[in-house]
Amino acid sequence: MIVSTSSEIHARRTGAVARGVGSVLSSYVDRASGGTLTDVDGREWIDFAAGIAVTNVGNSAPAVVAAVREQVERFTHTCFMVTPYESYVAVCEQLNSLTPGGFEKRSALFNSGAEAVENAVKIARYATGRQAVIVFEHGYHGRTNLTMALTAKNMPYKHGFGPFAPEVYRAPMSYPLRDGLTGEQAAARAIDVITTQVGAQNVAAIVIEPIQGEGGFVVPAPGFLPALASWASANGALFVADEIQTGFCRTGDWFASEHEQVVPDLITTAKGIAGGLPLAAVTGRAEVMDAVHVGGLGGTYGGNPIACAAALASIETMRELDLAAAARRIGGVLTERLTTLADKYPQIAQVRGRGAMIAIELTKPGTLDPDPILTGAVNKVCHAAGLLTLTCGTWGNVFRFLPPLVISDDELDRGLTILDQALATTA
Ligand code: PLZ
């Protein structure tokens, strides 16, 4: 068998793959496991990306591989809407018991995060009989037409792709580094926009990431989320937590909402749920979820049996290895090392995040002016030195760290040393 090199594959790609689909690296993966990726040329990267917060249990986690193998030999697809199977039910049971809230819950399964968010909005509109959806500055919820409308950032997600879905309203976010407000003050500011510009009685749902992902790992000030959730419940609107990036132990709890004891009416999940297989879900209050008529929710592949088998194995692995505790430990190491780097490099304006979802925001020293050029340059040096990092943020000036939760201490340490060197040569 002739094995192609990354540069050969890359040359073919240009003639085969649409230009609009970008990639961070131009190296092509041959294999990946735990906290490392290897390309077809034999080069290795320490993985600080986890496929954008997906492989929380590690790439090709043994239990996931075994479960997928077993399922793929029994049957690959029947469509749950045609001939149902047990694993779909079992995943819903797991979600209903793992998500916050002691009340009766129901779940429905989909393929992607965007699809889950779309369905959460469908369900919220149906259950409330209202139309308006409130989202936030810097928010990210997907690339489909409705979720583009929910997503804040124009380039690259929305530019040229309009018109966007109506009845979507954007409120100001709590961004402690930049607004200096308490959670209560920031919530009052957002609620004022909602009541004066939308009208409380029109709001079907408030949709928010408990910690923003693509928007810059923005952690709202304490009290912001609880204040919005209690406003929603006092005004007949649903509080929808988009936990697609924060879920499944990433932030040191099963879900990030738990940190402030926020109990969402609906919660969207995807990414970390199935160890790399495409699966997403909406979970929430039984009376809200069950409001929709039979046949009103679904899709050909939603809750595919192979993805469900992978999800059950992933959830079991998270429990067995206590990956929430692992995320807290990783968060401790990252925060400590990054805080030391912040003392050394004045371009690091803030270290923030929770658990294994940590970021640094880079600005021109002594100011809050974003420095996306430096961020991009450090990123490139990290990639060349064998560390796979990702950037994010409305201004592209945030460096985020999302290692698999099974990453070894040694890999974590080597990765942070590469980052230090990259900052030293670039900053
Ligand atoms: N909600 C909070 O983080 C996906 C997007 C990468 P899908 N984030 C990664 C990119 O550039 O497309 C995400 C998210 C939150 C929704 C989504 C959407 O999930 O599975 O990508 O549709």
UniProtKB/TrEMBL annotation:
<dbReference type="GO" id="GO:0030170">
    <property type="term" value="F:pyridoxal phosphate binding"/>
</dbReference>
<keyword id="KW-0663">Pyridoxal phosphate</keyword>
<dbReference type="InterPro" id="IPR049704">
    <property type="entry name" value="Aminotrans_3_PPA_site"/>
</dbReference>
<dbReference type="InterPro" id="IPR015422">
    <property type="entry name" value="PyrdxlP-dep_Trfase_small"/>
</dbReference>
<dbReference type="InterPro" id="IPR015424">
    <property type="entry name" value="PyrdxlP-dep_Trfase"/>
</dbReference>
<dbReference type="InterPro" id="IPR005814">
    <property type="entry name" value="Aminotrans_3"/>
</dbReference>
<dbReference type="InterPro" id="IPR015421">
    <property type="entry name" value="PyrdxlP-dep_Trfase_major"/>
</dbReference>
<dbReference type="GO" id="GO:0047298">
    <property type="term" value="F:(S)-3-amino-2-methylpropionate transaminase activity"/>
</dbReference>
<dbReference type="Pfam" id="PF00202">
    <property type="entry name" value="Aminotran_3"/>
</dbReference>
<comment type="similarity">
    <text>Belongs to the class-III pyridoxal-phosphate-dependent aminotransferase family.</text>
</comment>
<dbReference type="GO" id="GO:0042802">
    <property type="term" value="F:identical protein binding"/>
</dbReference>
<protein>
    <recommendedName>
        <fullName>(S)-3-amino-2-methylpropionate transaminase</fullName>
        <ecNumber>2.6.1.19</ecNumber>
        <ecNumber>2.6.1.22</ecNumber>
    </recommendedName>
</protein>
<dbReference type="GO" id="GO:0034386">
    <property type="term" value="F:4-aminobutyrate:2-oxoglutarate transaminase activity"/>
</dbReference>
<dbReference type="GO" id="GO:0009448">
    <property type="term" value="P:gamma-aminobutyric acid metabolic process"/>
</dbReference>
<dbReference type="InterPro" id="IPR004632">
    <property type="entry name" value="4NH2But_aminotransferase_bac"/>
</dbReference>
<dbReference type="InterPro" id="IPR050103">
    <property type="entry name" value="Class-III_PLP-dep_AT"/>
</dbReference>
<keyword id="KW-0032">Aminotransferase</keyword>
<keyword id="KW-0808">Transferase</keyword>
<comment type="pathway">
    <text>Amino-acid degradation; 4-aminobutanoate degradation.</text>
</comment>
